Amino acid sequence: MSRLVRLYPGPWRERYEAEFLQLIEDRPPSPMERLDIIRGALDARLHPQVVEAAPEPMPWTHRLPGLLSLSAGLALCLAVLGISFGPGPDWGAAASFLGIAVILMPISLPGDYLGSQRRRLVLVGGAFGGSLAAANVLGWGVAAQVLGTLATLVAICGLLATAALRAGIAPRGRWIAVVGGVLLPLILVAGITLVRETTGVTIVDVTASTTALFALPYGLAWLIVGLRMAVRGSPTIVDRPTVPSAAGRSGAAEVTQP
Amino acid sequence: MVDGRGFGRFAEPARLVLVALRDGPRQHVRLFDEVRALDGPIGPGTLYAAVARLERLGLIERATNGNDGMRAYRLTGSVAGGGLASAIEGLYR
Q1: What is the mean pLDDT of chain A?
Q2: pTM to 2 decimals?
Q3: Average pLDDT of A8-34?
Q4: Distance (Å, rounded) from C-alpha B28 to C-alpha B37?
Q5: ipTM for the complex?
Q6: CATH 1.10.10.10 fits B8-91, yes or no
Q7: What is the DSSP string of A13-69?
Q8: Are B58 and A258 inside 8 Å of each other by CB?
Q9: What's the gap in Å between the CA of A11 and the closest CA on chain B?
Q10: So where are chain B's domains?
């Protein structure tokens, strides 16, 4: 029955859905009355009587983290494309973009959401720091290189996942970003290298230029996450934490008075 | 943008809502029953189309109803205070 109510526009549902559902639960509608509900929904869409309360204007600073993430993604994509298709082997400009991306990524992350994610962030930071410390203690042998790689992987995935978290992306979307942006390309590179080393068959000539291309999904992931973050807005670390108003939380709709 | 047109086919259901609320606030299910008792089978879609229009025009409002303050309606002060006839007349203009 609630499917019929979903035909009504959002602001109408904000205001009347609960009582309407209760009404049709208490007085189950006949087939003709179901038709009447559909007509009512059509009327509510054609001649809206309820408008959504205007949202409070977002401070411009809330766009900054998203724009930084967006810029980081753009810089990384430009660096990758420069390395892959540039004149080379002098990748000075491309390397500059890479440096910009590496700086912008962590800068775009601190915000008021960090407090609520403290445990996860400590876990990621701990894994990163622990891996680096272990690599240093062991000296830079094979085991240390593995740990160093692991630390880098944790950092790369952690940064993207944290940005996605800040952009309000659901857990499934965050996993897609991390798997599609980092793990899948990494597995591809590792697989191609392994095949070449074990069988001598060269699927793709893995040079620095081609390897860089595998970082493109990561850059694109940052672009998408940054765009979402910029559109949605997110308080920066210097902004006062946002406490949604009661109207904002419920998305309360208002019946306008003439 | 809120539609500014009149009640059209909802004028009669709106009149019934006003009449049903004449004697005081009504919980929404009871309001539905009373409107139906006044004029036969009016569906929930029609009832709420009328209610939304009446509320927009400030002829009815939500009233506190015990712990369930969101789900009762009453006539607004001007309508309850002797303006019912002119309010009903206005529905058909």
Answers
A1: 80
A2: 0.53
A3: 91
A4: 14
A5: 0.89
A6: yes
A7: HHHHHHHHHHHHHHSPPPHHHHHHHHHHHHHHHHS--EEEPPPPPPPGGGGHHHHHH
A8: yes
A9: 11
A10: 8-91
List chain A residues with CB under 8 Å of B29. 22-23, 26-27
What percent of chain A clears pLDDT 90, i.e. is strictly above it? 24
Q: Tell whether A163 is within 8 A of chain B (Cβ).
A: no
Residues of chain A in contact with residue B53, where contact means CB-CB under 8 angstroms, are 49
The reply to whether residue B45 touches residue A37, judged by beta carbons under 8 angstroms, is yes
d(CA B81, CA A77): 70
pLDDT digits (tens, 9 = 90+) for A69-121: 999 999 999 888 888 877 766 677 778 888 888 888 888 876 656 655 667 77
What phi and psi, each to the nearest 5 degrees, are found at residue B75? -70, 145
Q: Do A40 and B48 touch (CB under 8 A)?
A: yes
pLDDT at A163: 87
Contact A46 B3 (CB under 8 A): yes
**Contacts of residue B43 in chain A, CB cutoff 8 Å?**
29, 32-33, 35-37, 39-40
Using CA atoms, how far residue A169 sits from A116, A163, A164, in Å, is 15, 9, 5
CA atoms of A165 and A116, how far apart (whole Å): 11
> What pLDDT is attached to residue A239?
59
